[in-house]
Amino acid sequence: MTEATNAGARKPRLEAVTDPAPPKDSSGLIDAEVDEVPAAAPTRVGNRRQLAYLGLCLVLIGLNLRTVFSSFSAVLPEITAQASLPGWAIVVLTTVPVTLLGVFAPLAPVLARRFGAERVLLGAMAVLTAGLLLRPADPGLPGGHLPGLLAGTAACGAAIALCNVLLPGLVKRDFPHRLGLMGGLYTTAICASAALGAGFTYSVYAAAGEWTVALWFWALPAAVVLLLFFPVALRQHPARHQAVRDGVNVWRSAVAWQVTIFMVLQAMMSFSVFAWLAPILRERGVDGATAGLIVSVSIVLQMLGSLFAPALAARFRDQRAINTVVALMTGGGFALSIFGPLDLVWVWAGLLGLGQGSLTAVALTMIMLRTRDGHTAAHLSGMMQGVGYGLGSTGTLMVGQLHQGTGSFTAAGVLFLVVGLLAAVFGYRAGRDRYVG
Fold first, then answer.
1. Helices of type H across 209-344
2. Which residues cross the membrane (predicted)?
3. What are the residues whose beta carbons fall under 8 Å from the beta carbon of 126, sequence distance 6 or more?
4. From the centroid of its chain, how far is CA 432?
5. What are the contacts of 285-290 at 24+ separation with CB within 8 A?
6. pLDDT in tens, 68-83
7. Of the chain's two ends, which shows fewer C-beta atoms within 10 Å, N or C?
8. Which of 7-16, 51-60, 178-187, 204-213 is predicted with the least confidence, judged by mean pLDDT?
9. Coil, strand or helix at 246
10. What's the average model confidence in pLDDT over 161-167?
């Protein structure tokens, strides 16, 4: 199918023939709009310079999708003390944004069919910017900063959910001949987003002396990307699309459920790293700047794992061994960061980073390796995001509740040993050479 099929008089710049649902795709990027009829066309750009500008915008969007998680945890002790937050509020603020990733994920393709993926992304970045601005605000209501923190955090979670679903499809459709480069830049940008939030937030707090300034700081890059992407999205004139479901029913597949539960368990650990690793280290006596640096380096090591693990996994007929190893590395690294010798904390954080990056990458790679066509891959991806993030948020919830109940993070270390073992079990089963349907 050519990209000009449904473009009318306005033809997209690229004329190459592409298949919107290839039987196998090594890029790992899932097009959430693959079931649309007529097929969603690439973003309209006039020349190669505009195409490069579009690529820059998409990468910069990815660079804003994790700061909301890691920036909050970097100054959590200061927020708790200065804003007088109750214990339940801390648990909610670390759990709700992850839960909303699963709640709002199914809405993204529906909105894209009505308004176009580019305009939905623009709207999501506007909501993300507004949420980041609202988060530290004191609206003068009872509770001080708490209403703003709750509303702003919820807005950020909803906006990131839409971007998580639609951004990979845009990268895949607009750069069919540069999938390796753009896919690598996109995934690296998301990891870098978490690393920047963890590494710089406390430094901004130390310079400004106010936690509100440290959180407001992250609205600036989001606002810049919003302005840069605005003319691109505004030029698009979305056509009406209908959803015609193709592929197998993933909800009735045992393989799909094994892959999804594997995703749930990795999400429980992944978002708990963003939410709780810095507070864990600070409770152990590490100062705020060093704790942020440790978390940032751990996340940078996630990038290395995410770069090499998918290629390694794809080389084998099944992925049972690699899934098991990276799950145990992640659970063990997290537990040792909590109750291992503090002198070796950099080693534990490095083990956690390499394990977590590899675990996240191979869990997502299972989508392509366990399906035979793009339609089934998109449905499995939707199932994994909805269930994976929705149930994965229980990890941050349980860590918060265990800390509230016991007064320490030791019980959370035991929890992650158990979660790591369960992830190894389901990773072993998901890694068998079988297909959904």
1. 211-216, 219-234, 254-283, 288-314, 320-339
2. 51-76, 88-108, 120-137, 149-171, 183-207, 213-234, 255-277, 289-309, 321-339, 345-369, 381-402, 408-428
3. 226
4. 26
5. 285/342, 286/342, 286/345, 288/74, 288/75, 288/77, 288/78, 288/202, 288/205, 288/206, 289/202, 289/203, 289/206
6. 999 999 999 999 988 8
7. N
8. 7-16
9. coil
10. 90
Q: Return the closest-CA partner of residue 221 out of 420, 61, 386, 403.
A: 61
Classified as helix, coil or strand, 243 is strand
Give just the sign of the alpha carbon dihedral 385, 390, 395, 397: positive
State yes or no: pLDDT of 150 exceeds 90.
Answer: yes
The CATH code that applies to domain 33-244 is: 1.20.1250.20
pLDDT-based confidence at 376, cuts 50/70/90? confident
CB 300 within 8 A of CB 352: no
CA contacts within 13 A on the Cβ side of 29:
25
d(CA 84, CA 158): 26
What is the band of 237 on the pLDDT scale with cuts at 50, 70, 90? Answer: confident
CATH architecture of 246-437: Up-down Bundle (1.20)
- Mean of pLDDT over the chain: 85
Longest Cα separation, the chain:
67
- Please provide the DSSP assignment of 338-375 as one string: HHS-GGGHHHHHHHHHHHHHHHHHHHHHHHHHT-SSHH
